[in-house]
Design goal:
single chain; alpha+beta; five-stranded antiparallel beta sheet; 20 strands; binds adenosine-5'-diphosphate
Length: 400
């Protein structure tokens, strides 16, 4: 059992405040990821939890007990760093068991524990090797092993995969996910990489400038970013934005005029915007379509990026903004082509002049989804939406 609670945590270095009041509840066994741009305070926050930095003000609780004054080695937490400085003259087993040696555990017990952990991390054949005879991924696994041998209540990871090459990062990501499944312990993981955050987290905490911008599951953040920053940070390639003018507000949605004069109705709650207001429309590259029959606006292709499975077109649209459009892997689009782009209002986000998202309109009578994405855009929990869907469409259930 290990819950972690942060209550109005602040951190000030001399006269600069770098953490500006963070409140957070981390559940037992949860995999929580702190994500945000470099310098936003992720490491500082993690190091305060670990006890490596003093907490200027606020309260840190682990399992309900105040930890502010508890020394790091008494908190029952273990941290894995980006730079996994292993002791070069010690074997893998000795490296992993080092903290136990400091704690006065007998050699026999230490080696037994190192063997157990090596089994979990598939390091058994390497126990007698020195670090210089290991690959980068193996070294990182030893660093994780050093945390594991201590059997901590909570694991803290600070960008542990940043020094690995791309392929290895993906593999280690999968291993970490598996490790979390098998250990069932609480994990707090820091990264600047939103893909790592999306793939690993039960809960993502998006930070910017020492402030929590939003907390939610990966899909909550993807479908319901609460402001422009989160909308632009979560999702890859990032969400496209353009400046629009509100022309009408109805119960079912708000209609905006986009550059090039077309109008789009976005199903957001009324009352937040009025006719005449400026706003920002957001739409993800994967939600745009090249469509001759029903174009919303035209654009000129500037760059074509072919990834095989899909193609990204960088398109200059009326008004001068560049949009990224995700299209088929075998798209024939070329630089300088004029392409018709269809924007589906149901898949768009609207932000007011302050950059805050306008909440989506509630939808009670959901029928067959035109787009599967739409299902997850409703406010209702997924299960309920699925129930509504199966009931309203009379999808045959299993025979009784
Ligand atoms: N010891 C320190 N003294 C003064 N400022 C610091 C110190 N450590 C970090 N900072 C500042 O605090 C901010 C947050 O840093 P950090 O938590 O390392 O960011 P992140 O891990 O998100 O990249 C940065 O602006 C950084 O310059
Ligand atoms: Mg950092």
């Amino acid at each position: 059992m290990a819950t972690v609670t942060l209550r109005d945590i602040h951190k000030t270095y001399t006269d600069t405040e770098v953490i500006k009041g963070v409140d957070l509840d981390i559940d037992d066994q949860e995999f929580v990821v702190f994500v945000g741009p470099s310098g936003c305070g992720k490491s500082t926050l993690l190091r305060m939890i670990a006890g490596l930095e003093d907490i200027t003000s606020g309260e840190l609780l682990v399992d309900g007990d105040r930890m502010n004054e508890v020394p790091p080695d008494k908190r029952g937490l273990a941290m894995v760093f980006q730079t996994y400085a292993l002791y070069p003259h010690m074997t893998v087993a000795e490296n992993m068991a080092f903290s136990l040696r400091l704690a006065g555990v007998s050699k026999e017990k230490r080696m037994e524990r190192a063997r157990d952990v090596a089994q979990i991390l598939q390091l058994e054949p390497l126990l007698d090797r020195k670090p210089k005879a290991l690959s980068g991924g193996q070294r990182q696994r030893v660093a994780i092993g050093r945390a594991l041998v201590r059997n901590p209540r909570v694991f803290l990871f600070d960008e542990p995969l940043s020094n690995l090459d791309a392929a290895l990062r993906v593999q280690m990501r999968i291993e970490l996910s598996g490790l979390h499944d098998s250990l069932q312990s609480t994990m707090i993981y820091v990264t600047h990489d939103q893909v790592e955050a999306m793939t690993l987290a039960d809960k993502i905490v998006v930070l910017q400038g020492g402030i929590v911008e939003q907390v939610g599951s990966p899909l909550e953040l993807y479908h319901h970013p609460r402001n422009l920053f989160v909308a632009g940070f979560i999702g890859s390639p990032k969400m496209n934005f353009m400046s629009v003018q509100t022309v009408g507000v109805q119960d079912s949605g708000t209609t905006v005029r986009v550059p090039g004069d077309a109008t789009i109705t976005v199903p957001v709650q009324p009352r937040s915007l009025s006719a005449g207001d400026r706003a920002t429309l957001g739409v993800r590259p994967e939600h745009l379509r090249i469509d001759n029959t029903n174009p919303t606006l035209m654009g000129e292709v500037l760059v074509v990026e072919r990834l095989g499975g899909e193609t990204y077109l960088y398109v200059k649209i009326a008004g001068g903004d560049t949009f990224i459009v995700q299209t088929d892997g075998d798209s024939r689009a070329k630089v300088r082509d004029r392409v018709p782009i269809h924007i589906d209002g149901d898949l768009c986000h609207l932000f007011n002049i302050d950059g805050m998202a306008i909440p989506k309109a509630e939808r009670h009578h959901l029928t067959v989804p035109h787009h599967p994405e739409l299902l997850e855009q409703t406010e209702a929990p997924l299960e309920q939406t699925y129930e509504q869907q199966t009931q309203s469409n009379q999808v045959p259930r299993q025979a009784d």
